[in-house]
Amino acid sequence: MLDSIINLDKQLLVFLNNLGNEQWDPFWLAVTNQFHWSPLFLLVFFLIIKSFGWKRGGFMILSMIILVAFSDQFTNLIKDTVQRLRPNNDPEIKDLLRTLINPQSYSFMSGHATTSTFFTVYVTLLLKGKYKYIYLLLFFPAIFAYSRLYLGVHFPIDIFVGITIGTIFANLYFTLYKKIDKVSFA
């Protein structure tokens, strides 16, 4: 059963990856680069400070920095434990993919999908009562995660599990934040 799921995962990646073309390659290379999302992060920080003030907002931003560090380390722990080859290194399918970058680390689970989802869902939960269109932020992890399929460096299961774990962690982290916030800023 697991073998058939992994086989379907590979087939789906080959299909999705081969939808790409050279015209779109620069766009997806830019999307996958975290630095290019800096204006979004600055906007989020601005909205948090505007909504909650410097003291409380600063605490929230500090909690986001901890969130990103935790997510990154958790993802690396999973990758090093599972040790699934990235698609661009998988001898079974690497010649069937359009790969534009060639990372050598392990694939499962996607750090891009996990951390971007964790961050964005957490921010959305923090700001949902303050801004009507805050849910539009959720396009960020979806686009960011898809870039990893387009580039041939993650399998769909890596992305799906990353988004799922990121969503679960964001909700748990938000629940913890609310408990700490009640005590600290009451």
TrEMBL record:
<keyword id="KW-1133">Transmembrane helix</keyword>
<feature type="transmembrane region" description="Helical">
    <location>
        <begin position="159"/>
        <end position="177"/>
    </location>
</feature>
<keyword id="KW-0472">Membrane</keyword>
<feature type="transmembrane region" description="Helical">
    <location>
        <begin position="134"/>
        <end position="153"/>
    </location>
</feature>
<keyword id="KW-0812">Transmembrane</keyword>
<dbReference type="GO" id="GO:0042392">
    <property type="term" value="F:sphingosine-1-phosphate phosphatase activity"/>
</dbReference>
<feature type="transmembrane region" description="Helical">
    <location>
        <begin position="27"/>
        <end position="47"/>
    </location>
</feature>
<feature type="transmembrane region" description="Helical">
    <location>
        <begin position="59"/>
        <end position="78"/>
    </location>
</feature>
<feature type="domain" description="Phosphatidic acid phosphatase type 2/haloperoxidase">
    <location>
        <begin position="61"/>
        <end position="174"/>
    </location>
</feature>
<protein>
    <submittedName>
        <fullName>Phosphatase PAP2 family protein</fullName>
    </submittedName>
</protein>
<dbReference type="InterPro" id="IPR000326">
    <property type="entry name" value="PAP2/HPO"/>
</dbReference>
<dbReference type="Pfam" id="PF01569">
    <property type="entry name" value="PAP2"/>
</dbReference>
<dbReference type="InterPro" id="IPR036938">
    <property type="entry name" value="PAP2/HPO_sf"/>
</dbReference>
<feature type="transmembrane region" description="Helical">
    <location>
        <begin position="106"/>
        <end position="127"/>
    </location>
</feature>
